[in-house]
Amino acid sequence: MKSIYLDHAATSPVHQKVVEDMMPVYKDVFGNPSSVHQFGRKARRILDEGRRRIATGLGANEKEIVFTSGGTEADNLAIIGTARANEKKGKHIITTSIEHHATLHAVEYLESQGFEVTYLPVDENGLVKVADVKEALREDTILVSIMMVNNEIGSVQPISGIAELLQDHQAYFHSDIVQAYGLVNIDVSTLGVDLMAVSGHKINGPKGIGFLYVREGTVLESLQYGGEQERKRRAGTENIPGVKGLQTAVEIIESERMNYKETYLHYKQLFLKTLKEEEVVFEVNGLGEETVESIVNISFPGLNVETLLTNFDLSGIAASSGSACTAGSVEPSHVLTAMYGTGHPKTTNSIRFSFGLANNEEDIIEAARRVSQIIKRLT
User: Do 56 and 213 meet the contact criterion of CB atoms below 8 Å apart?
Assistant: First the structure.
């Protein structure tokens, strides 16, 4: 029985071209990019080229790219670093109730340090309203943090509208674009966001590498102490093979973006179509036209996450949920709770399926049929 991977929103397989481009760096480029000798200069060239290439794709300046260990570190640097550096202007932060835990736990930490956080609600489609952001804004607001695409249901937030709202306000605007990067065309010159977090392993790149876009002029305090790498914003010897792999992954997604969008949307529609043909009872969480192509979150009435994921895994299907399964109990998804309310059945019976490089059309049909058989057996 072939295993089928439908959890690309959690992590994605590394593209073969990425592996091929990284291997020579691992073998031949071991110098420290901060060293002035030829070995260091060789590493520095790879670092500088990667930074320039990534910046160009965003319409950014290379000085605005800070390499990190991934999306979580980038979110933490953006949120905590900005808050610390600007607390004399105010200590109020706005975010949403459906953010990734890299953001939520960062703002929770700031709350423990005396900052005040407003958590915006979302509607039943997982969307925040620009009007709610406007209403929550205060003179002492220094940071607004709202993700571009939700990692559980794929809802695409009105980032441009929020950025326009903040144009004449002192608050910096941070967005976790981890799930959007690669499928959404992003140009920082028009988007209006000040800080954006990206992770390499979500775009068929290596783990352990990511970056934070920091708009020129944004006041940010480093969270690490040591060297003066990354223009004093992130101490530590840079991950040169990782940077090379990330650069290649970025080049691939930029050239294949439209193809990926069409392919993953086809997979999503085919998956849902097959479930319907198999006469399975289910409901999609979120509006299809308001979600990213690669993610679909499905509620299976009368069932629970723990049972579903266990049976899917036994049948070779890899999927996931926002619910945390611990010691025989299920902690409801914080995203679905924000959408539907505490105690709603969908918070503990919904599964996220996410499509990507590891899939083909035959896999999608087969996976949907296996899921259908399991659902019928359990109900």
Answer: no
pTM confidence score: 0.96
The contacts of residue 6 (CB under 8 Å, 6+ apart) are 317, 318, 319, 353, 354, 355, 359, 367
Token code pair at residue 317: 């299907």
| Separation of alpha carbons 316 and 2, rounded Å | 7
Residues 6 or more apart whose Cβ sits within 8 Å of residue 256: none
Residue of 64, 101, 100 lying closest to 211 (CA atoms): 64
Where on the phi/psi map is residue 226: left (φ > 0), alpha (ψ -120 to 50), or beta?
left
Active site residues: 325
Tokens at 185, concatenated: 């065309």
Counting beta carbons within 10 angstroms of the beta carbon of residue 228, is it exposed (0 to 12), middle (13 to 18) or buried (19 or more)?
exposed
On whether the CB atoms of residues 174 and 193 are closer than 8 A, the answer is yes
Whose CA is closest to 130, among 89, 87, 159? 159
8 A C-beta contact, residue 92 and residue 138: yes
The per-residue pLDDT for range 364-374, each reduced to its tens digit, is 999 999 999 99
Report CA 370 to chain centroid distance, whole Å.
28
pLDDT digits (tens, 9 = 90+) for 11-41: 999 999 999 999 999 999 999 999 999 999 9
Reference 4, options 294, 363, 296, 312; nearest CA is: 363
- Structural domains in the chain, CATH included, are 4-12+256-378 (3.90.1150.10), 16-252 (3.40.640.10)
Q: What's the pLDDT tens digit per position in 244-296?
A: 999 999 999 999 999 999 999 999 999 999 999 999 999 999 987 889 999 99
What's the rounded Cα separation, in Å, for the pair 237 and 317? 39
DSSP secondary structure of 106-160: HHHHHHHTT-EEEEE---TTS---HHHHHHH--TTEEEEE--SB-TTT-BBP-HH
In order of 2, 18, 154, 275, 296, the CA distances from 373 in angstroms are 16, 37, 26, 10, 19
